[in-house]
Design brief:
By secondary structure, this protein is α+β, with helices and mostly antiparallel strands. The protein is 29% helix and 23% strand. The structure holds 6-O-phosphono-alpha-D-fructofuranose.
Length: 336
């Protein structure tokens, strides 16, 4: 009955069936989807847009910003700050929390990575937008305080990402499972194409950047060594490997066919225990993966239970097929 429903139609249908889904949250998700349509229209022009390449600036992470990092950030901020739905925003590309004019304040905090995987943009590999929705403690009555931004992953009201690949697909959870909506360019709408996504509990496919192996904790090195021993090794399986260097693409693949994605603890810089950011990469992806029956850990603790101390806090990430993530956690537990 829901097949072919457009995004907003589906969310309103969910509300009619009794799901606790405030109208403002439905509107917020719809507005984010509109922003992502503008982003995909910009990104898909590639060289024609004349904005590929680096911007000559660095973000708070100390990473070289692509021109499209800044452009897509400005699209998201510009659209959402006058939506009347957010009290404040946090972006990978902006050092400090972004406030909105008092007249435009809404109930929610929106955290986002406007163009995840942007190091791939110049070589035409899939990128995406990741977003996470929290509530502001004072709602629209006053500017949010830092504590409104630094909330644990378990406090999320919604999380999603849009992968700009061969097709543009919005993946969404509001805590009632995971659904996928494919952009139909003929009508300019995200249309429901997969309802109730479920990650296979077992896998033979791992995703990790092997060039960092010497920097990992010993148990992570041992787990990958054992994967590479294949069916004759202790894990008794012939594994395959993938690494796209774009988290949205890796997580989308895992949602569709299972797998395990790891960006583990890295000894290079103690102030950066992992590469990925908690608030707008690890937490939203954890909400989605857990809602699809998967598991998300730092290899030591559940990501969504982590205390938050900084807007751009980094965290080690191990996520995907439940039984494989459990194995990695067990390797680390044994080493303690
Ligand atoms: P590396 C993209 O920059 C990103 O944040 C994730 O999307 C991706 O999984 C990871 O970094 C890739 O990192 O070190 O392989 O370039």
């Amino acid at each position: 009955m829901t097949a072919g429903m457009k995004l907003k139609q589906f969310l309103l249908h969910e509300k009619r069936t009794g799901v606790d889904l405030p109208y403002d949250l439905i509107e917020l998700i719809h507005e984010v989807s509109i922003t992502c349509k503008e982003i995909t229209a910009t990104v898909s022009r590639g060289e024609l847009s004349g904005v590929l390449g680096v911007a000559g600036t660095e973000n708070v992470q100390g990473e070289t910003q692509k021109k499209l990092d800044i452009i897509t950030n400005d699209i998201m901020v510009g659209h959402m700050r006058v939506s009347g739905l957010v009290a404040g925003m946090g972006s990978e590309e902006v050092d400090d929390p972004i406030m909105v004019p008092a007249m435009e304040r809404g109930e929610y905090i929106l955290m986002f990575d406007p163009l995840d995987g942007s190091s791939n943009i110049d070589v035409n590999i899939s990128v995406g937008t990741i977003f996470s929705v929290l509530t502001a403690s004072k709602g629209c009555k006053a500017d949010p305080e830092m504590k409104d931004f630094l909330q644990k992953g378990t406090r999320q009201k919604a999380a999603g990402f849009v992968v700009y690949g061969p097709s543009t697909v919005l993946v969404l959870t509001t805590g009632q499972g995971v659904n996928m909506f494919t952009l139909d360019n003929r009508i300019g709408e995200f249309v429901l194409t997969k309802q109730g996504v479920s990650i296979p509990t077992d896998t033979k496919e791992y995703a990790i950047n092997m060039s960092n192996q010497r920097f990992w904790e010993k148990p992570m090195q041992e787990y990958i060594d054992d994967c590479q021993l294949g069916e004759k090794g202790p894990l008794g399986k012939r594994y395959n490997m993938r690494w796209v260097a774009s988290m949205v693409a890796e997580v989308f693949r895992i949602l569709v066919r299972g797998g395990i994605f790891m960006y583990p603890y890295d000894s290079r810089d103690p102030s950066k225990p992992g590469k990925l950011r908690l608030m707008y990469e690890a937490n939203p992806m954890s909400f989605i993966v857990e809602q699809a029956g998967g598991m998300c850990s730092t290899a030591h603790e559940r990501i969504m239970d982590m205390a938050v101390t900084d807007l751009h806090q980094r965290v080690p990430v191990v996520l995907g097929s439940r039984n494989e993530v459990i194995k990695v956690v067990e390797y680390h537990a044994r080493a303690k």
